[in-house]
Design brief:
The protein is mainly alpha-helical. It has one domain. The protein has three helices and two strands, in the order ββααα. Strands 1-2 form a two-stranded antiparallel sheet. A hairpin with a 5-residue loop joins strand 1 and strand 2.
């Protein structure tokens, strides 16, 4: 018997399957934000994190900050 799809809540509040196009689109958008942060100065990254927190909440800021940190460590060869 196949597992039923996992459900997730998008930033919009909509609940969708992890196999949905909406979830893939949101994941891609989150990743693109991390990639854009790579070329930013520290003050610019801090400003972006502040704006994300204002617009999307503390959880979104923490998620972005954590993902950027993991990406930075992986690119630098540091342990995650």
């Amino acid at each position: 018997m196949a597992d039923s799809p996992r459900m997730v809540t998008l930033a919009t509040g909509e609940v969708v399957s992890t196999s949905s196009q909406q979830w893939r689109d949101e994941c891609f958008a989150r990743w693109q934000r991390v990639v854009r942060m790579r070329s930013m100065s520290l003050p610019a990254r801090r400003a972006l994190l502040h704006e994300v927190e204002k617009a999307e909440g503390g959880m979104a800021r923490t998620r972005l900050e954590d993902e950027f940190t993991r990406d930075w460590k992986a690119r630098k060869g540091a342990p995650a």
